[in-house]
């Protein structure tokens, strides 16, 4: 069962667990979040594992100051102005991911953008004390209501995580507002703790709101997504001429010796390790120049469900504009 500590006595223990690669439930002004070191892919995988029935949607990165944010995302003038006015607070900015940014590809789900927020209170102190950006979705099982108290987290995730930091009731109680600046327009991706009217007052212009189903307004909504340039062939039983191989476990499929390049998600068959390495290994195989990537079967239980979900998106026909539903995983705090 999770240890519960009041936030005025929890920082040292929370830092110890974060640096050890373990998730910790922490309070913010919006809702409680399940926090982990955003630079550590296996730590991030443990978030999805604890939440159950995982989907590798992008996670918001929480920072302690602008210096940390600037190492991760590239700010345009409008985004910088919004950060100056609304940070710290419940506003998330979706920015281009900076080259060499110290975050795991699992946090961004392999995308070229990253959501960044500077929270108030304990989560910011956690990032400052560890020196690590903090990735976190809401601290609840997938599909359940986002928690606004430590007791709500305990009732749901208490047996799956080592520590819950009790900061009392969340003052805002809904997730952060998410906006993205693109081509000079500021698009509202999700309403939340900062009212759209407040942002519009600062901008002197209305936010862009897409019609439902007309445009893709948030990461991870297309069937064809996370796709390399090479075609992806799932559940392969053999390697064909000219193919690269995305392997899993200690045993290889037929003709594996013919692969032009090989990356193994986990030689030992560990699904957490496989989740942490998925996007990096796909990118590495894509760079080898193979026309196709053969993927060995990956079990579907636990984190395997999320791995297979992302592999299926990578293998989907290019140009498929079907929009799939977003679930609670994008409702980060």
Question: Can you walk through the features of this model?
Answer:
The protein is α/β, with parallel strands linked by helices. It folds into two domains: 3-203, DHBP synthase, CATH 3.90.870; 231-315, Threonylcarbamoyl-AMP synthase, C-terminal domain (Rossmann fold). The protein is 28% helix and 17% strand. It contains ten helices and 14 strands. It has helices at 11-19, 41-51, 66-70, 77-86, 105-108, 122-130, 150-157, 196-203, 271-287, 304-315; strands spanning 3-6, 24-26, 33-37, 61-62, 91-96, 113-117, 134-135, 163-166, 177-182, 185-190, 231-233, 243-247, 262-264, 292-295. It has an eight-stranded mixed beta sheet, with helices on both faces. The chain has a four-stranded parallel beta sheet with strand order 11-14-12-13. Strands 1-8 form a two-stranded parallel ribbon. Helix 1 (11-19) crosses helix 6 and helix 2 crosses helix 9. The radius of gyration is 20 Å and the shape is globular. The two termini are 24 Å apart. 48% of the residues are buried. The model is unreliable at 211-222 and 321-331 (pLDDT under 50). One of its GO terms (molecular function) is L-threonylcarbamoyladenylate synthase. It comes from Aquibium pacificus. Its main location: cytoplasm.
Low-confidence stretches: 211-222, 321-331
Given helix and strand content, the structural type is: alpha/beta
Sheet with the most strands, sense and barrel status: 8 strands, mixed
**CATH structural architecture of the largest domain:** Alpha-Beta Complex
Keywords: ATP-binding, Cytoplasm, Nucleotide-binding, Nucleotidyltransferase, Transferase, tRNA processing
Catalytic activity: L-threonine + hydrogencarbonate + ATP = L-threonylcarbamoyladenylate + diphosphate + H2O
InterPro entries: DHBP_synth_RibB-like_a/b_dom, Sua5-like_dom, Sua5/YwlC_C, Sua5_C, T(6)A37_SUA5, TC-AMP_synthase_SUA5
Subcellular location: Cytoplasm
């Amino acid at each position: 069962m999770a240890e519960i500590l009041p936030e005025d006595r929890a920082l040292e223990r929370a830092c110890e667990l974060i640096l050890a690669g373990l998730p910790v439930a922490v309070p913010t002004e919006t809702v409680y979040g399940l926090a982990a070191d955003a630079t550590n892919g296996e730590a991030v995988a443990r978030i999805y594992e604890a939440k159950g029935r995982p989907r590798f949607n992008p996670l918001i990165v929480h920072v302690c100051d602008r210096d940390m944010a600037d190492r991760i995302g590239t700010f345009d003038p409008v985004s910088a102005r919004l950060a100056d006015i609304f940070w710290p607070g419940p506003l998330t900015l979706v920015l281009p991911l900076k080259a060499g940014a110290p975050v795991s590809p699992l946090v961004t789900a392999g995308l070229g953008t990253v959501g960044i927020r500077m929270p108030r209170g304990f989560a910011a102190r956690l990032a400052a004390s560890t020196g690590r950006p903090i990735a976190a979705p809401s601290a609840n099982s997938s599909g359940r209501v986002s928690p606004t108290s430590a007791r709500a987290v305990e009732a749901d995730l208490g047996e799956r995580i080592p520590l819950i930091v009790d900061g009392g009731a969340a003052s805002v109680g809904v997730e952060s507002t998410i906006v993205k600046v693109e081509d000079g327009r500021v698009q509202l991706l999700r309403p939340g703790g900062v009212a759209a009217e407040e942002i519009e007052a600062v901008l002197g212009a209305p936010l862009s709101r897409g019609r439902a189903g007309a445009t893709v307004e948030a990461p991870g909504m297309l069937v064809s997504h996370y796709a390399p340039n090479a075609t992806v062939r799932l559940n392969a039983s053999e390697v064909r001429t000219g193919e690269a191989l995305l392997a899993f476990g200690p045993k290889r499929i037929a003709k594996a010796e013919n692969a032009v390049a090989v990356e193994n998600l986990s030689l030992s068959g560990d699904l957490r390790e496989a989740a942490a390495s998925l996007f990096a290994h796909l990118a590495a195989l894509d760079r080898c120049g193979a026309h196709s990537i053969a993927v060995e079967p990956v079990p579907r239980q636990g984190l395997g469900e999320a791995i297979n979900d992302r592999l299926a998106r990578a293998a989907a026909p290019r140009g498929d504009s079907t929009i799939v539903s977003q679930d609670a995983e994008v409702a980060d705090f």
